Amino acid sequence: MTSSVPITENLMKSFQASKTFKYHKVDSPITSIDFDDSGQYLISSGVDESIQLYDVNKGKHSKSIFSKKYGVHLARFTHHEKNCLYASTKEDHTIRYLSLHDNSYLRYFRGHRAQVTALEMAPVDDVFLSSAYDDSVRVWDLRSSACQGFMNCKAPSLISFDPTGMVFGIGSNNTNEIGLYDFRNYDKDPFATFDINVNMNWNKLEFSNDGKYLIVTDAANECHLVVDAFDGVIRAKLIGTKKFPNRNYPSTGSTTISPDGRFVYGGSGNRSVMIWDLQEIQKDDINKQIFPCKELNSDQGLPRMCLFNPRMLTFATADTAVTLWLTDSKNSMI
After folding, report:
1. Spans of the WD repeats (predicted)?
2. What domains does the chain contain, in order, with CATH numbers?
């Protein structure tokens, strides 16, 4: 039986690599990982055209689902148990809504004219956003195959909902801009636009759990940005990681935020996971350099992607294998 435990600084720094799953094709890049709302299940997708499902609570691999005809990228859980979305990589650019229970397709979302680059479920309902190399962001509802909204962008973009689901951000390193939108009026111009004049290759945009910051992750892993979500000022640069070896396939980003919103975890090219403490940021800081307050060492593979579990004291890393990281309170809820 699980029980809640208080989140402390020592606890958040005590993670250890616990179990590694090697169910994707050997040495085949994994491109996305995602937890479901309950935290019990994890999925990964890769260039081997498979989705792998894991039971986090039991520490076991559950099943393999293949999409050889269409390819697979950006597998994302919906709010419905064992249902997911994923982007096609072959034949067309359709987003597919899949039941992992019986491997049946529930719906198709057609409209993008180029490869989908991001999929994000709204935090509290059945709406989701997608962006693609056709320089567009689309709004969808799981209950209808029809596109609910369309936005032209200047370049391929990343997307992120704030914790309330009332605001979402669209950002791109091609324009060095982040625009914030009111979801109730997504057909209007952004209510705020931030210029981010830092030369880096973005591959993840994420609101902190308290909505205070936006974390912009650098694919080159040279530094990650902490942007004030209210005024767009770069409050801090998270540094101290080693570069990842180059590869030709995208990933869903090497940083993740702890449930209390205090710590950022990020993979490093030396196979470690770095932890940065956002409490080091003071009210008037600008471009403050923050070094890791803790380095978690592992020989379980490269942590090119990093994602925190929404409910349980665990996080996952992935590159060509998936690793779960646990604390001594591995059976506790947060």
Report:
1. 23-64, 109-144
2. 9-326 (2.130.10.10)
